[in-house]
Amino acid sequence: MDAERNDPAANLNTGVTTATDTPEGVMLSHESINAALHTVILHARSNENHRALCFLPFNHVLQTMAPGVSWNTKDWKLLMATGKNVKLQIDQIVLSFGGVFALNKVSLDVRENEILAIIGPNGAGKTALLNCINGFYKPQEGEIYLDGKKITRIRPDKLTKLGIARTFQNIELFTGLNTQDNIMASRHVRMKQNFIAGALYFGWALSEEIKHRQAVEEIIDFLEMAPMRKKVVGVLPYGMQKRIELGRALALEPQVLLLDEPMAGMNLEEKEDIARFILDIFEGQGDTYPDTPVLRDGIRSIVLVEHDMGVVMDIADRIVVLDFGRKIAEGTPAEIKTNPEVIRAYLGKDATV
C-alpha cells in the first residue's frame, strides 16, 4: 500500500495521483483536480484580465489546490498528461422549448488535440447542443466560451469567422449547384474583395478568386471527389453528398469542427471512408497540401455526434453521454463502455452490467 502511495504511475488506474515530495503524501483524485480547475476558471473570468487568465497552466491549478506542495518529475508528467488546453467551454447550458428541457445544466469542455464524441439515445439533446454552440439556438441559461471569449449569443455568421464550422444531420447543400460551387460558397468569409472589385473581376480580385479556387480544388482532391467536381449535387448519391458537406465545412478553415452524424445512413465502406477523412483532418496532411492551412495543419479540436458506437470507440479520445438533456457520463471510451448509467440509458433501467 505504501509503495502505491509513493508511485504516481501505480495510482494511474485508480484515478488517484500522489504528491510524493511531501511528508503527508497529498492525494488528489481526478474529480478534485477538475473541480479546482473549474473554480480557477470561474475566478479568472471575474478578473478584468480574464482572457489572459481563463485558461491557466495546469500547474497553477495544482498550486492553488495545495500551496507550497513540491511536485516531482514523475508527478508533473502524469498530471500534465491530463492538462490539455480547453478550446471551447460549455458552462451550465439550459435550453427549453415550452416546458420541455432539451438541455438541462449541461457542462463540458472541448480540448485542443482531441476528438470529443457526444453520444446518447435519440432525443438526448446532441444536435440541440451543437445548435447552441454555433449560434442557431440561444440558451436561456449558461454560457459558451471560445478561447476564453464569451460567444453565447453571437450570430452564426460571426461565429464562423471566429473559427467554428459544422456539418448537419440533414444535408443542407445547394442541390442545384455542382460540387465545386457548393464548396466555393464557404470561402466567402475568407474573401476581402468588395462588391465593385468582384463585379469587375480584375487585378487583385481575380488573384484572390484564383487562390480560393485552388483551396477548393485541394479539398476536393483530399476528399477524393475529383470525378464529381462538376456534377450537380442533387443527382449525386447520399454518401457523396455527405462528403461534400464535410468539404464545405473544411473550406471555412475552422479551429473547431462540429460533425453532426456525418455517417448517418451510410454503408460500411462509406463509413470507413468518412472515419479515415476525420482522422486525416485531425492529424493534418503536412507538405501534401502546403498552400491550404486547414489540410496542412489539420483541425485540432473536433466534436463528433454519432450513433455508430464502433466508430466512436475507435476514433474518439473522450466521450460525453447525454440522456434527456442531461449529461450522465464523461470519460474515455473504455470507461464509457462499462459505465452503468450509460448502459441503462441505452438498454433500460433493468439492464445488468
Description:
With 353 residues, the chain is an alpha/beta fold. 39% of the residues lie in helices and 20% in strands. The chain has 16 helices and twelve strands. The protein has helices spanning 2-5, 30-45, 50-53, 58-65, 73-80, 126-133, 156-162, 179-184, 195-200, 204-222, 238-250, 268-283, 293-296, 309-315, 333-337, 340-347; strands at residues 16-18, 27-29, 86-97, 100-111, 114-119, 141-146, 149-150, 164-166, 256-260, 301-305, 318-323, 326-331. A six-stranded mixed β-sheet has the order 8-9-10-5-11-12, sandwiched between helices. Helix 2 (30-45) crosses helix 4 (58-65). The chain is globular and about 65 Å long. The two termini are 29 Å apart. Residues 1-27, 44-58 and 69-83 have low confidence and may be disordered.
In summary, what is this structure?
With 353 residues, the chain is of the alpha/beta class.
